[in-house]
Amino acid sequence: MSSLFPLDVETLARLLLDEARTRGWRITTAESCTGGLIAGALTDIAGSSDVVDRGFVTYSNRAKSEMLDVPGDMIADYGAVSEPVARAMAEGALAHSSAHLAVAVTGVAGPGGGTAMKPVGLVHLATAAVNGSIVHREERFIGLDRSGVRLATVRVALEMLRERI
């Protein structure tokens, strides 16, 4: 078998798909800094269509608002890379899908765009489940290059989804 992703990511994706399949759950993704890589890791596995409902790549603030109903004033007040926005993205993805579980990620992958308050490597992740609960996690993948930040984010997102199944 050949995968686009490292073996550990492929393994996480396979485990997640198996666990979701066992529960009869479907998954959706809302991605900014990863640009669809989480959905890509899941759909890289043959047969994933019975678990993966859809993925939203909301790279721009406008896309976050239009596709996921993230309030524009929330983005203006907290910034796109923030806990409130990650939570709203996860809720919006769940609301605009037929999934049982959503994951959302927003961050600064670099190499530019970082600030003292929001450095390169800062990522906010959130999962939302049909029972209404939302789990947030902040990661700081400091010292990684752009690809490293994005891949580390995929790993954490898959782990967070597994924790919710």
Could you characterize the architecture of this molecule?
This protein has 165 residues and is α/β, with parallel strands linked by helices. The protein has a single domain (7-164), classed as Maf protein, CATH 3.90.950.20. The protein has six helices and five strands, in the order αβαβαααβββα. It has helices at 7-23, 37-43, 61-68, 72-78, 83-95, 146-164; strands spanning 27-31, 52-57, 101-107, 122-129, 134-140. Strands 2-1-3-4-5 form a five-stranded mixed beta sheet, sandwiched between helices. Helix 2 links the parallel strand 1 (27-31) and strand 2 (52-57). The longest helix has 19 residues, at 146-164. The protein starts with 6 loop residues before the first helix and ends with a helix. The mean pLDDT is 97.
